[in-house]
Amino acid sequence: MIGVVGAGIGGLSAAIECALNGLEVTVFEAREAAGGKACPIVHQGYTLDPGPSIVILPEIYTDLIQRAGFKPETYLDFIRLETITRIFNQSASKEREPEVFDLPADHSKLLDLARDINPRDATHLEELMAKLNKWAPYIKSKFLLQPVESPLALLDWKLLQFGRELQLGKEFKQIVDGMFQSDVFRALFYGFPSYSGLSYRTKSPSPWFIPYFMLQQGVYVSQGGVASIPNALFQVAQELGVRFEFQNEVVGVASSGSNIVSLQTAQSGMVKVEGVICNQDRGSFAKLLKRNKSSKPSMSYLTLHLGIRNPSFDFATHNLFISSDYKDGFRNLYELQTEANWAVMYLNAPHLDNPECSPEGTGQYFFVSPCPAQMPSFDQKKAEETLLETVESRLHRFHIPLDLDRIEVEIKQSPLVFAERDGNEFGSLFGVHESERVMGMLPGNRDQWIKNLFYVGASVQPGAGMPMACLSGQHGATGLLEQLKG
Q: Does domain 2-38+57-76+226-295+430-485 have CATH number 1.10.8.100?
């Protein structure tokens, strides 16, 4: 029997992959439902998606479901949005009314908008997208569709050629500043490294590909909310005979030689296993393995979810607020690691596409900002206590009122929540700090010392985010299958 620790996206996809190869699989999940950080919170009639909210690369989920022998449309219904995000730009002047415009998913309309913002920026954006289009198939095959377990795999002349074309000897911020003059594009691109737990000082190529996929392929909503994605994988896994034990945390392991032979669970006691796929944070699971070394963490998030009566302001599904102090915000986040960056604030309004997620006559506002993980330089408690006040103040800069009397539900998430609820070491959502990575890459799926232990999820390759976590599950399962076959 294969034991999967955790029913997040990575654990679910790994369980499906193992079951497709004829293995008996049991998933042990500490919480009461599948989904990990994409597991919805139901509160006072609201169904909140408190985790990932921007859906890209839907084919990763549909391809897995189809390969499992099922029709994807039975489980998932993705709709491509015409607007990637609505941008509220205050960066030009504190005194003027903020600029408001929609970043279109259509490529030609996107370039037309870029020309209106800054003709030079439009030329460089078009050149950047052409380069990424050229290299996307190679990068997908090299870094997404297969694991990179050794730095030696990076000794590839194609990778060197790609690096030269994208000036990857420079820091990400230097390249962005050389390409773009407008505050809009600088602020937009400065934020992308945080999605991988990196800073804009990184020299890794990975921050370029999230904006590439968003700008080239667009973003999607899933009918039923983001939670419909793990729900679909959970249903498929059950159809394949995967067994789930909820509220049954793995609290220990027993090894023989270089293999794990049993998992100790809170409810079932010791359970014999042939192999283990761990969707739990790699740093936290190390404690069960009696490894005491802690790594320096990368970043986390602060989020505020509000359920509101009669929401009236004209938001889009995805919204980005760029304040005039955005440079200070990124400096405090990336370099000083003292604050969340509310100077570039993201807002998701999921009720616009999924009205069933909220009671009639109500809606949801989901505010998100990257922040440092738990560390002495970041006063997490103060940031969490003043979260609503901070968001209200930021909206006020854009002349947008937040009627506090209409708020029915207020739910906060912070590094503390991710540490205590989800087991993420230091509350980091993206694993180890970039100083402990090779070319910005997260650790591989294979454990260094235990042969039949493989890691999946957002803190290992191929990286953060739901699509990458899904791929990591498949990579981890493939690696374990190869190991078991000898």
A: no
| Cα Dmax for the chain | 68
Quote the distance between the C-alpha of residue 284 and its chain's center. Answer: 19
What Rg do the C-alpha atoms of the chain give, in angstroms?
22
Residue 59 tokens, joined: 């084919």
Residue 369 class from Cβ within 10 Å (0-12 exposed, 13-18 middle, 19+ buried)? buried
Tell me the C-alpha distance between 447 and 331, whole Å. 35
Phi-psi region of 250 (alpha: psi -120 to 50; beta: other; left: phi over 0): beta
Q: What is the dihedral of CA 22, 26, 27, 32, to 10 degrees?
A: 130
**Token representation of residue 343:** 């100077």
pLDDT in tens, 84-133: 999 999 966 656 688 999 999 999 999 999 999 999 999 999 999 999 99
**241 vs 69: CA distance, rounded Å:** 13
Q: What is the pLDDT of residues 327-356, one digit of tens each?
A: 999 999 999 999 999 999 999 999 999 999
Q: Which two tokens stand for residue 7?
A: 């029913």
Domain range 80-105+218-222+299-421, CATH architecture: Alpha-Beta Complex (3.90)
What pTM did the predictor assign?
0.95
Q: Which residues contact 210 (CB under 8 A, 6 or more apart)?
A: 56, 192, 195, 196, 465
Domain residue spans of the chain: 2-38+57-76+226-295+430-485, 80-105+218-222+299-421, 107-215
CA distance 162 to 169: 11
